[in-house]
Design brief:
The protein is of the alpha+beta class. The chain has one domain: Rossmann fold. It has 10 helices and 16 strands.
Length: 364
C-alpha cells in the first residue's frame, strides 16, 4: 500500500505547515444541487449538511448529495455520473448572470465534444450547445438555477433562472454573448490549453509564488529546474535545456494545470475531472499534499474525480498525515433495483477501514 512523506507548501516558495479550521454544508438533484459552503469560505461554498438536489441534468433523474468539505474526492465506476456531477456543480456556481450562465452551458458541451471538434466531426455552434442543456434545474445552498426552452405559437424563448431572478428572452433577441466567471475553473481530462496555463500562471505571479511552483515541480521530477513563459509558450528547464510543456508528457502538464488553477481560483472553486490523469501512482501523495495545502491557503473549494484505487489511497494517506478534517471522499454508485444514482460520503477513518479490509468504496 502506497505511503510517502509529504512536504507542506505555503505558496511562498518556502516550506511551511499550515492548519486552517473549516466548517462545512451539501448538494442534490431534476438537476438540483446546493453549492458548496463551509465556515471560512466567503459568500459561497457547498456545505456539509444542506440538501442539494440535481434533476434533469444528464444522467440524474432525482439525485441528492451532502457532506461537502473543502477538498472533495468523488470515486465510482465508469459511466456512473462523476463527470456529470462536477459539471452540474460547475453550472450552479457559475450561473450568476445570463452571460456567465450561457458560457458555462457552452463550456460543458465543448469539453465533452473536444475531440470531435478537433477532428471536425461537429461545429462549434453556440446556440446548439446551449439548447442541448434544455430542462436543467440545479439547486444548492448557493444558488438555484434553471434553463428552459419554450416554443409557443411559433415563438421560441429561453427562460433563465438564477440568483432569485427569472428572465425570459426571445431567441431572436438573444445576444449569445459569453462571459467567464472569475475564480471558478474546470480542468477536464484533456487538461488546460497553453493559453489557459499562461493566463492562470499570472495569478501565481501576482503572489510572487513562482518559486513555489518550481519547488513542487522539482519534487515530482528532480530534472525539472524551473518553469517559465517564453515566447508566449509554457516551458520547463529540464537538465539545463528549456522544453515546451507539451513535450513533457501528460503528468507534468496536469500538475502545472492544477497548481496554476488553484491560484487562479482563490476564494472560489476548482473542479478537476480524472484528477490522476497522467500522474504516476508513486507521486499521487505529493499531488494531494499540494492540493490540500494550497486549497487551504488560497480558500479554494476543490472537487475532483477518480476511479483509481491508488489515487484514493494516496488521498486517504494525506488526510491522516496532515491530520486533515476538512476533506471527504464520496462514492457514487447505481442502485441495482431502481437504477437510480446515489452518493455516500466516507470520512477519513471510514475510508481507511474500507481500503484495508477489501471494502467497497468505488461503486462496486
Amino acid at each position: 500500500m502506497l505511503r510517502s512523506q509529504h512536504r507542506v507548501y505555503d505558496g511562498s516558495g518556502e516550506e511551511a505547515r499550515t492548519q486552517d479550521v473549516w466548517g462545512a454544508e451539501g448538494i442534490s438533484g431534476r438537476v438540483k444541487f446546493l453549492p458548496l459552503a463551509w465556515a471560512g469560505m466567503p459568500k459561497t461554498s457547498f456545505r456539509k449538511n444542506s440538501d442539494s438536489p440535481l434533476k434533469g441534468f444528464k444522467c440524474f433523474a432525482d439525485f441528492k448529495a451532502q457532506g461537502f468539505m473543502q477538498v472533495n474526492l468523488i470515486g465510482g465506476k465508469n459511466n456512473v455520473g462523476k463527470t456529470a456531477f462536477l459539471e452540474a456543480c460547475f453550472v450552479n456556481v457559475s450561473a450568476q448572470d445570463i452571460k456567465n450562465f450561457t458560457k458555462v452551458l457552452v463550456s460543458i458541451k465543448f469539453m465533452r465534444e473536444n475531440l470531435n471538434l478537433l477532428l471536425g466531426d461537429i461545429e462549434r455552434n453556440i446556440q446548439q450547445f446551449i439548447e442541448q442543456s434544455n430542462g436543467i434545474f440545479v439547486r444548492s445552498n448557493i444558488n438555484t438555477c434553471s434553463y428552459q426552452i419554450e416554443n409557443k405559437e411559433g415563438i421560441k424563448k429561453y427562460f433563465f433562472s438564477f440568483n432569485n431572478e427569472s428572465i425570459g428572452i426571445n431567441v431572436n433577441e438573444f445576444s449569445f454573448e459569453l462571459s467567464d466567471m472569475e475564480k471558478i475553473h474546470f480542468i477536464d481530462n484533456f487538461g488546460l490549453s497553453n493559453s489557459h496555463v499562461i493566463n492562470y500562471y499570472s495569478s501565481l505571479q501576482k503572489k510572487d509564488a513562482e518559486a513555489s511552483l518550481n519547488i513542487i515541480l522539482n519534487e515530482f521530477d528532480s530534472s525539472i529546474e524551473v518553469f517559465k513563459i517564453i515566447d508566449e509558450k509554457p516551458q520547463c528547464k529540464v537538465n539545463g535545456k528549456y522544453l515546451e510543456l507539451t513535450e513533457l508528457g501528460d503528468g507534468v502538464r496536469h500538475l502545472v494545470s492544477i497548481v496554476t488553477s488553484l491560484y487562479a481560483s482563490e476564494n472560489g472553486y476548482l473542479f478537476i475531472d480524472e484528477m490522476d490523469n497522467g500522474i504516476h501512482y508513486t507521486v499521487l501523495g505529493e499531488l494531494w499534499n499540494v492540493i490540500f495545502t494550497l486549497s487551504a491557503k488560497l480558500n479554494v473549494q476543490v472537487f475532483a474525480t477518480t476511479h483509481s484505487k491508488e489515487c484514493i489511497e494516496a488521498f486517504n494517506h494525506v488526510q491522516h498525515d496532515l491530520g486533515d478534517k476538512q476533506s471527504a471522499y464520496f462514492e457514487m454508485a447505481r442502485n441495482i433495483k431502481t437504477e437510480q444514482i446515489f452518493m455516500r460520503d466516507l470520512d477519513d477513518e471510514q475510508l481507511a477501514y474500507e481500503l484495508t479490509h477489501q471494502g467497497k468504496y468505488r461503486g462496486e
